[in-house]
What does this fold into?
Amino acid sequence: MKRGIQLPLQTGDLIVGFMVWVILSSLLPFIKQDIAIPTEQLALVTAIPVVLGSVLRVPLGYLTNLLGARTVFLASFACLLAPVWFISEATTYEALLVGGVFLGFGGAVFSVGVTSLPKYYPRERHGFVNGVYGFGNMGTALTTWLAPLAAIAVGWRGAVKLYLVLLAAAIVVNLVLGDRGEPRVKTPIVAQVKAVWRDARLWSLSLFYFVTFGAFVALTVYLPNFLTSHYTLDNVTAGALTSAFIIIAATVRVLGGWLADRHDCFRLLAIVFAALAAGAVVLAVAPGLPVYLAGIYLISVACGIGNGAVFKLVPTYFMDQAGPVNGLVSLWGGLGGFFPPLVLSASMAAFGTNAPGLAAFAALALACLAVVAGMKGKA
It folds into this structure.
C-alpha cells in the first residue's frame, strides 16, 4: 500500500516544499511596504532562497538513496519551521536575507523524489513518473496566487505563519504514509561521483537543466515584482499572472515526460531551446503587456517540456548513480534560477532595459541547441 502511494505522496511533498521556497518573492510587494529594502537589493532578496535550494540538492539526492525519501522529507520540513517563523518576525532587510537562505530547503527537496520514485517503476515509465513528480512545481503557483490573498486578509506576517501549519501537516502525513522499506543504495557518494564526473553527458544535461529549470525559477521569482513595478499591476493580478506561468510549466512538464518516453528526447530538446530563444527575443523588444505575456507563456511551455525531457534522460544514462547525478543536475537547474533575476536587474539599472540580459539568455539557449545537435549525432 505504501509503495503504491509514493508518487502522489512525494508529488504533494514537492508542492509543499516549493510553496515555502517562494514565500519571499510572492510577498515582496507587501513586505517592502513594511521593511525598507534598497532598490538595488530587491532582486537579491527574491533570489537568495535559490542558493541553498541548489547546493543542498546533491547531498539530499545522496541521502535519499542512503536513508529513504521518508526520512529526508521529514528532516527537510522540520528544518523549514525555524526560517519560516524567523521571516514572519523579521523587521530588517538583513533578517529577510538570513531567513531566505534557509528557505532553500524547500527547493532542495526536488532531488528527493527524482531519486526515490524511479525505484518503484520500470525504466520505460521514468519520463512520465518524473514528469508527474515535477508537477509539484505547482507549489510555486499556489503561493504566488494564494499568499497575496492571505496577506490582504491577515497581513503578510500572518500569511507567512500559515506555512507553519502546512509544514506541520506535511510532517504528519509523511510519518504515517512514508515508505520505511524503500530500497537503499549504500555506495559511498565519492565513489558514485567518481564514476560519472568525467562523463560529458552529465554536464550536458546539467547545462540543459540550468537553462530550462533556471528560466522557470528565475521568472517565478522575478515576475511578481516586475509586473507591479513595470506594468503597474496590482499585487493580486501580478500574482495570478505569475501563477498562470507556473501552472502552464508544471502541467506541460508531465506532457514533456510522456513525450520523452515515446519520442526522440534530443529532437524535443532542440524544439525547446529554439522556443526559449524566440521567447527571449519577444521579451527583449519590450512590447505592451499582452505581447509580453505571450512571450512569457511561450517560455513557460518550453521550460515544462524541457524539464520533463531532461529527467527522462538522467535515469536512462545514470540509473546506478541516480542520487548524486539527480542532485548535480538539479543543483545546476537551481543555480540557473539564481543568476537571471540579478542579470535582468543589473541590465535595467545600467541600460534602462532588460534587452541585453534577455539577449544573453537567448544566446545561451542557442548554445544549448548546438550541444543537443552534437549529442544527437553521437547517439
Remarks:
- Residues 218 and 340 are 6 Å apart (CA to CA).
